[in-house]
Amino acid sequence: MNKIADSTKNKIEALNQELTPTKEERNKLNLEAKKCAEKRNSLNEKVRNLRKDADTIKEKRDTINKQVQELKNLRDQVNTKGKEKRDKISELQEKIRVLNEKRPDGNLRQVAREIEEIDWKIQTNSLPVKEEDDLVNQIRQLETQLVVQKRIKKVKDKLFEMRTEQRGFGTEAKTIHEKLSELAEQSQKYHLQMIGILEKARELQAEANEAHQKHVETRQQAQQQHEKCVELIEKIKAIEQELKETADKKQAERQGELQKELEERALAKLKRGEKLSWEEFQFLAEKGLL
Q: Minimum mean pLDDT among 48-52, 126-130, 153-157, 213-217: which range?
């Protein structure tokens, strides 16, 4: 019987020896899983913050891009107006060329002076009719020249005005282009900054996903070790229960033997007329043997 008890105790000891490292491994895995979860959560928080930063930069970039588009539209309008002015300038230059072909030598002031001189001669001199008619015809021809030259001057004045306006459009277009270049550079800077942040976020997200996967795997391993602990504890409890039941049974048997001996001893004394002890007397009384 002792050999059986010893064997059972050895089993319990062996199970406890297996249980201790299993618990340690389970606890170690749970700690590792906790660290993985903390790392995952920390990385996810960083990813969220980076994405917020990227969204803020994207808004700045998009605002600049909107300004760029508006400036491009304005530049196109200015270039269109500039082209219209250039076309008008070409028309005026052609008109001047045609008028110059009709204009005799001499300038506007010279022709006007000639007209005044001839008119003065007619007014202040008594001239023969033919000579006076010739002078009148000269005035008529000179006035025709004067009209042409005045038209040329008017067209040239308009041409100067057009060129001034065209240069203004050119200056405005240049200013817009410089502003466009500056904004485009800022937009590119924000874009590259946003791309860099998103790339960093992707790297951290991959690391967070890896930490999460490690957390899941470690938790599964810890659960396996926990289930093994539960199984070992149940085996130990079952053996301990078996030991207890065996001990209780043995104790009950021993108690029965002692009671039987007490009964036999008390009855023998009673037959011999000897005095019973209080325990013997009480026992026989309870059994109804007195």
A: 126-130
Query: What distance in Å separates the CA atoms of residue 257 and residue 249, rounded to the nearest whole number?
Result: 12
Backbone angles phi, psi at 274, to 5 degrees: -85, 160
Q: Percent of the chain at pLDDT above 90?
A: 42
- The pTM of this model reads 0.59
Non-local (6+) Cβ contacts of 45 within 8 A are none
**What token pair was written down for 52?**
């917020």
Instruction: Examine residue 251 and state whether it is found in any structural domain, yes or no.
Output: yes
Which two structure tokens, joined as six digits, stand for 74? Answer: 């304005």
Domain for residue 282, yes or no? no
Whole domain around residue 97: which residue ranges?
A: 2-266
290 is a domain residue = no
Per-position DSSP letters for 214-275, written without gaps between them: HHHHHHHHHHHHHHHHHHHHHHHHHHHHHHHHHHHHHHHHHHHHHHHHHHHHHHHHHHHTPP
- Per-residue b/e over 20-31, b at no fewer than 16 CB within 10 Å? eebbebbeebbe
Q: Are 82 and 164 in contact (CB under 8 A)?
A: no
Question: How many domains, the chain?
Answer: 1
Distance of CA 53 to the CA centre of its chain: 7
SS3 289: coil
CATH number, domain of 139, equals 1.10.287
DSSP structure class, residue 24: H
Q: Residue 105, SS3?
A: coil
pLDDT score at 148? 74
Assess if residue 284 is contained within a domain.
Answer: no
